[in-house]
Amino acid sequence: MTTLPLAAGMPPAAFHYDDAIENEIAALVDVIAKTPDLGRYPARWLAVQLLEDDEEMTERARQAQGGLAVLAALALGRSRLEAHYGDEVDVALADGRYRFVHSLASGALTRPATPPKTISDRIDRVVTNRYLGIPIFLGLMWVVFKMTTDISAPLNGWVDGIVSGPLTRWAAALMGAMGLGGTWAESLVLDGVIAGVGGVVVFVPVLMSLYLALGLLEDSGYMARAAFVMDRLMHALGLHGKSFLPMVVGFGCNVPGIYATRTLEHEKDRILTGLLVPFMSCSARLPVYLLLASVFFPTSGGLVVFSMYMLGIVVAVLVGMLLKHTLFAGQPPAPFVMELPPYRLPTLGNLWQQIWERTAAFLKKATTIIMGTSLVVWLLLAIPVGGSGSFGNTPVAESAFASVSRAFAPLFAPLGFSSWQTSGALVSGFVAKEVVVSTMAQVYDVEEASAEETPTFQEDLVGIGTSFGAAVVDTVKSIPLIVGINLFGNAGDETPTGLPAAIEQGFNQSSGGHGALAALAFMVFVLLYTPCMVAAAATRHELGSKWMWFSIFGQLGIAWVVAVIVFQVGRALGLG
């Protein structure tokens, strides 16, 4: 018998479980009473904790003198209760408490015959509808990626102009003033640090747009509905809707998505979900999509990016169904219970905090992992292998990096991109997917445009300010593009120059004129192969070394096969 105090001045309420549970509690209390080391705990409370399989109290009972007798009695009691209820003991105990609370509430509250519908209830009738829920989810994802690609494009171009223009000129002038102009030290700064890291940092506006969109969905309460809507689909994989939440987190970054699997109760769910999270297209892959989409699909970049995210989900579903019927066969999914929070209006302060924290994490990676990898790539590009070049002054095609990359190039010939530049970018992408873009910025031999007159420092500052104003105006003009309305004409038909032009030429040459199709296969490979070394380390930490290697080689194989299908089938159909 347990007594629960209700309120000041009111008698306590008597509470007891079903007779089967009370009998086992009483039997455990008798054994606990004979164990002096456990005397400091209330005997009935301790018995309930042990029946609920509380890890801490079970360990204390194991360490207590005479505790083995308690554990033996506990094992017998739990087995009898599981046989009696046909369910786990902690579920039966929770059910007893909830029934007691329900009886108290029923006796103290008078409820209307028809409970009033809240605003959240009315919205959920549509958003979580059996037939409309998934189309609404896909529609919102479409808006997110249109917002990411269209609205952020002008600011992305503004940052790119600063990095490739004033910042590069200032660094070159500083190196010249130090007497290092034309030396390998200047190449290290301009071609290693600025070209490498700068090639990734230019996408900060894109990532901030993505974080803003996802923050709006999370703070409004919609993401919980997305998990509820996806529950039926997740059951097809042998999982439940709660497993979809780590996958949603994986859209931002696969690493916290993998760590989020620890919230799942069952080991099978954790392993299977952890293997599927890396197929979710993280924000690190986004710069690759945007770079290639802007070159080969300038008028349909949003659709291309959206298709990459949807393809990741489709492949995850197919892989999950395969694993369900092979490695995880015969293991039914656990029931999904989740409280849906009421809809709320997101606050600017909370949104900004989320955007800044995620962007700061990206910038930290840019100044550590990406910079380190860019410097390694620069070093390999600076080392001559054959030819007449010297250290820091050798053609990129005659560098050590090109030599190493050519060894991997034949593996990607069936995928349509067999140049050493693309294979080298993919190899460096094992470190982090952002490095794919920075490597491309370093390895493609782009001829610098000759300026008739170099702007002064003051002119550069004025140019930065005026170009920012123009970028803001263009951003406002691009807002209607989210819903497919172009009010201000199409500015996406310019001929690519610089790095985009070099990429276009490289893909066209390696694919025999099917450059757009090869670029699409390249994006598919980036989507599906191992996300980064940090994600691999997280998989090892959460799931173990065996599953880490299974994930790495499995994703490599899937990425290669799917990319081959995209290119070869597309070429057979005359596409690209």
Search tags:
about 575 residues; mainly alpha; two-stranded antiparallel sheet; 26 helices; 2 strands; about 65% helix
- Helix percent reads 55-70%
Q: Count of helical segments? A: 26
Structural class: mainly alpha
How would you state the average pLDDT, rounded? 79
Which shape, going by the Cα principal axes?
elongated
Oligomer: single chain
For the secondary structure, the number of strands is: 2
Q: Give the DSSP E fraction (strand runs of 2 or more residues).
A: under 5%
* Uncertain spans: 1-8, 485-497
How many strands, what sense, and barrel or not for the largest sheet? 2 strands, antiparallel
Please give the alpha-carbon distance between the first and last residues. 75 Å
Rg measurement, Å:
30 Å
Give the spatial strand order of the biggest sheet. 1-2
What is the N-to-C order of secondary-structure elements (H for helix, E for strand)? EEHHHHHHHHHHHHHHHHHHHHHHHHHH
How is this structure best described in words?
With 576 residues, the chain is an all-alpha fold. It is built from 26 helices and two strands. It has helices at residues 19-33, 43-51, 55-63, 67-85, 89-108, 119-127, 133-151, 153-177, 184-201, 204-220, 222-229, 231-235, 244-252, 254-259, 267-276, 286-296, 301-324, 348-382, 400-408, 420-428, 434-443, 457-478, 498-510, 515-528, 533-543, 545-572; strands at residues 2-4, 13-15. A two-stranded antiparallel sheet has the order 1-2. A hairpin with an 8-residue loop joins strand 1 (2-4) and strand 2. Helix 3 runs antiparallel to helix 4, helix 19 (400-408) packs across helix 20 (420-428) and helix 25 (533-543) packs across helix 26. The longest helix has 35 residues, at 348-382. It is elongated and about 90 Å long. The model is unreliable at 1-8 and 485-497 (pLDDT under 50).
